[in-house]
Specification:
- This protein is an alpha+beta fold.
- It has two domains: about 60 residues, no CATH class; about 170 residues, no CATH class.
- The protein has eight helices and seven strands.
- The strands form two sheets. The chain has a five-stranded antiparallel sheet with strand order 1-2-5-6-7, with no helix packed on it. It has a two-stranded antiparallel ribbon with strand order 3-4.
- Strand 3 and strand 4 form a beta hairpin.
- Pathway: Lipid metabolism; polyunsaturated fatty acid biosynthesis.
- GO terms for molecular function: oxidoreductase activity, acting on paired donors, with oxidation of a pair of donors resulting in the reduction of molecular oxygen to two molecules of water.
- It is a multi-pass membrane protein.
- Its main location: membrane.
Length: about 260
C-alpha cells in the first residue's frame, strides 16, 4: 500500500499526476500516483465518481483498488479502514471501547430522567466545557499554542477539558499530516473511521505518527503527567459529585449526554 505525502500539500485528484514521497521507504524512493478519471464529462470537465490509482513503488506500477473522491471534496479515499476487523487490539483500545459504549448506553436513560434543572445544567456545562475548556484550552492554547495563559488559569481550563476525553497529541498530528494516511483520523480511510472509530485504533496511530513525542512540552510539566495517568479517576469523581447533587438526572444529563456530544463532535 502506498503512503500519501506528509511533506507536500494535498492536491486535487483532478491533477493528471501527483508526486508523493513514501515516509516508510528504506531508500526514500519516490511514488508517482496517476489518477484515471471516469470518462463522463460535463462542459469539458471530467466528473470523477470512482477512480483507479496507479502508484509506482520503487519504479514498479501498482494498482490501488477501490479509490474514489469524496463528494464535494478534493480528498481521495484510498481504502476504507475497519476499526474492528482485520487488526490487532491492545488493552488501551479495549478500555476506550468499554468507556465509549458504556457512555452511549447510559445516555439512553435521558428521556426517563428528565427535569429542567438537569437540562439547564447540561446546557451550562456544554457552554463552559466546549467553549472554554475544549475550544480555548485544549484546541487553541495546548494544541496550537496560539496564546499564553497564566499557569493557574491554563491548568484550570485544562482540568475541565479532561472531563470530556480530550487529547492534544492526536490533534497536533492531525494538523501536521492533514488528510494523508498519517493523519490519525484521515478521510482517505473512509468516513466512519475519520469521524469516530479511529479512537479505537491507537496502535496504528503510534506506528504511523510516533507516539507522544509531539507533546514533550506538556510531558515536562508534572500537572499534565498527573492528568494523563489519572484522568479516568477524575471522571469518576465528577460523576459521583453530580449524582450526589442531583441524583440520576444530574448524572445522565450533566456528564453522560455532554460526554456523548464531546466524543462524537
Amino acid at each position: 500500500m502506498a503512503y500519501l505525502s506528509t511533506t507536500l500539500k494535498a492536491v486535487s485528484p483532478f491533477s493528471p499526476f501527483v508526486k508523493k514521497h513514501n515516509p516508510n521507504s528504506n531508500n526514500n524512493s519516490a511514488l508517482l500516483a496517476y489518477h484515471t478519471p471516469n470518462p463522463t464529462s460535463k462542459q469539458g470537465r471530467s466528473v470523477i465518481h470512482k477512480e483507479q490509482m496507479f502508484v509506482a513503488v520503487h519504479g514498479v506500477p501498482v494498482l490501488v483498488e477501490s479509490s474514489w473522491r469524496l463528494p464535494m471534496s478534493d480528498v481521495v479515499v484510498v481504502r476504507k479502514k475497519s476499526a474492528f476487523l482485520e487488526r490487532s487490539w491492545n488493552s488501551r483500545d479495549v478500555r476506550k471501547l468499554v468507556r465509549v459504549v458504556g457512555v452511549h448506553l447510559l445516555s439512553l436513560l435521558a428521556p426517563f430522567h428528565f427535569n429542567w434543572s438537569a437540562f439547564k445544567l447540561c446546557l451550562w456545562l456544554s457552554l463552559l466545557i466546549i467553549g472554554i475548556c475544549i475550544t480555548l484550552s485544549y484546541h487553541r492554547n495546548l494544541s496550537h499554542r496560539s496564546f499564553n495563559l497564566p499557569k493557574w488559569l491554563e491548568y484550570l481550563f485544562a482540568y475541565g477539558g479532561v472531563l470530556a476525553f480530550q487529547w492534544v497529541s492526536n490533534h497536533r498530528y492531525h494538523h501536521k499530516h492533514c488528510d494523508t494516511q498519517r493523519d490519525p483520523h484521515s478521510p482517505t480511510q473512509g468516513f466512519w473511521f475519520s469521524h469516530m472509530t479511529w479512537i479505537f485504533d491507537t496502535g496504528s496511530i503510534f506506528n504511523q505518527c510516533g507516539g507522544y513525542e509531539n507533546v514533550n512540552d506538556l510531558a515536562r510539566e508534572p500537572f499534565y503527567r498527573f492528568l494523563h495517568r489519572t484522568f479516568v479517576l477524575h471522571l469518576m469523581a465528577y460523576a459521583l459529585l453530580l449524582y450526589l447533587c442531583g441524583g440520576m438526572p444530574f448524572l445522565v444529563w450533566g456528564i453522560d449526554l455532554d460526554m456523548v456530544w464531546y466524543i462524537t463532535d
